[in-house]
Write a structure and sequence with these properties.
Chains A, B: Keywords: DNA-binding, Transcription, Transcription regulation. Two copies of one chain form a homodimer. By secondary structure, chain A is α/β, with parallel strands linked by helices. Chain A contains 14 helices and twelve strands. The radius of gyration of chain A is 27 Å and the shape is elongated. The N and C termini of chain A lie far apart (about 70 Å).
């Protein structure tokens, strides 16, 4: 049976013999308030150095660890920045961005917690995140709606920041417009004299958030030029790449934007195995500027995607937490720049 | 100034106007205990259906979200499984394993929380994890010592599970012995008639946890055979690979185990660019069995690394949480199997 909530947290019996702040107070011979002042480093209350030391020694001796949850209940908010894991595996570029961000937030004394992918989606997922009472939430992707934002705000999150293609009411937005990537790729192929351009669209539905805008961006770049776009669905398998390569000549394409560098590697291998010359018969451009593109022969042209620095984003989060009433900020943060090598 | 801890959580004023269970009780016209019974789905107390409905409607109307922290304080433990992010970027194989594990734990009603990498290491990091009062902790790598395990246990974690090369006192261990990978690679090269075998050791210090045992495993496999191992430090850059390739002939090697498939791609490219024939002059084997190995020419031989299934690990965690007093279990979980293709 559950205990009702009006029992004070530190008096409730922990599982087995978890030491509490009351135990520390008893051993140090001080009040529990004093223990709390010392362990929370409160600057508004003066505690004598010998007392402070006695409390710290007692805490060490008992192996007492403050309870972040209790502390956040007392303080009214936590230092936890919650970041749901993205639904799709987002590759090394995004991974680097996330670890840089975690590092930068850690330096500002936030604890970054990544919430695992679960079956819950959208606003239902927001409810699960809200239960942890984060002080800020960083949401990659497109799933969170205005209702989810408002639920998170009502549960005490001082800042909700989305990282995705569009703004959501009530949240700060770091707009990552993947269309810019497709736009840059197609404009480059057009400038190299190509007019019949294929665009690879991965069949993996988890990648749709990225592949759709990349395709749309490519269409936009060529609108009104007379150049043609052909959509090329492709699964992440050698077999599917070989199937596509086998009907390549019939497609009559003189260039292809392959969604990213990894799909470029997959398709280039299949094309070369069937005798298609790159770039003479078909120019190929990827995206993300991974090391592997430089190792392919011919060396792969690519679109370099520039994400915001972790430090900048951490600063935005901190500003928003300190000033929760401020109007949501919107920043366009995704840069796209063509790196031409030998494949175009 | 901090509030002292003996204020009941749900009576403490939230930041701005966060709805509390007291608000729900008031609107529904029931006691706070009843709200708690309904929202925690307590089966030991019978609540009439109209009352249950009134509480749920009131909670919905107010946008009330239960506080996981308060709930865990009441229940004495949480459903949070904490998983510190590994210090090194561990590649797609490990990424897939983690998301499978998160999914499996989610199905058992645990919330998986990944704790971001911070400056804190070892037992100091354990203290930070303990503050979140997880019911279980899964620690990849080698940093946690017996003191850290004991601190986590004292703070209420019912299970601590390490995923790494060695056991730690007091913790369950999933032994992932990377030496098996190097052993399999070297034994394969030896069986193919190679006797002067290079082993690539990435210069990236974050990869040492993996590269050292892989090297040691290769040495073990060849001990007493008369075959020789040459250690080859290599940075993840084209320049360093080109430097190594330039002095390749002088090294007199007839085979190389490249740490993993990505380093294989890097080194194979540099070797092929300087005219080394693979496998005639030098046999090459990688590890991890990534897609890219199948796309290289010649197709890359590799060591396929088999990790435990996420479902098995989730079941172990659940068993340990239900029976926190049981003796720690140790399982060897890393399998290594050579997949021979064209490069050896």
């Amino acid at each position: 049976m559950v205990q009702i909530p009006n029992t004070p947290p530190s008096a409730s019996p922990g599982p087995r013999s978890v030491p509490t702040s009351a135990d520390v107070a008893r051993l140090a011979g001080v009040s529990r308030a004093t223990v709390s002042y010392v362990l929370n480093n409160t600057s508004t209350v003066r505690i004598s150095e010998p007392t402070r030391r006695r409390v710290l020694d007692a805490a060490r001796e008992l192996g007492y660890v403050p309870h972040a949850a209790a502390r956040s209940l007392r303080a009214g908010h936590s230092r936890m920045v919650l970041m749901p894991s993205p639904a799709a595996p987002l590759g090394p570029l995004y991974g680097r961005f996330v670890s840089e961000l975690q590092w930068a937030l850690g330096r500002l004394d936030y604890t970054v917690v990544q919430y695992g992918t679960t079956a819950a989606r959208g606003d239902e997922a927001a409810r699960a995140w809200a239960e942890l009472r984060p002080v800020a939430v960083l949401v990659p992707g497109t799933e969170l709606g205005p209702q989810g934002v408002s639920l998170l705000r009502r549960s005490g999150a001082r800042a909700v920041v989305t990282l995705g293609p569009a703004c959501v009411d009530g949240a700060h937005a770091l707009l990552m417009d993947q269309a810019a990537v497709g736009h840059a790729a197609a404009a480059h192929l057009y400038a190299r004299g190509r007019r019949r351009i294929g665009v690879v669209v991965p069949r993996d539905p988890a990648l749709e958030t990225f592949s759709r805008p990349r395709l749309d961006g490519a269409r936009d770049a060529l609108r009104g030029t007379g150049a043609e776009i052909t959509e090329l669905p492709l699964a992440w398998t050698e077999e599917d790449a070989a199937r596509l390569a086998a009907r390549w000549t019939g497609l009559g394409l003189d260039a292809v934007f392959t969604y990213d560098d990894e799909y470029a590697m997959l398709l280039m291998r299949a094309l070369q195995d069937t005798g298609v010359r790159i770039p003479e018969d078909t120019a190929v451009i990827g995206a993300d500027d991974l090391m592997l593109g430089r190792l392919l022969r011919p060396r792969l042209s690519t679109v370099r995607v520039e994400l915001p620095s972790g430090a900048d984003l951490a600063a935005l989060v901190d500003r928003a937490v300190r000033n929760p009433g401020a109007a949501p900020e919107t920043h366009r943060v995704l840069g796209a720049r063509v790196v031409r090598r030998e494949s175009t």
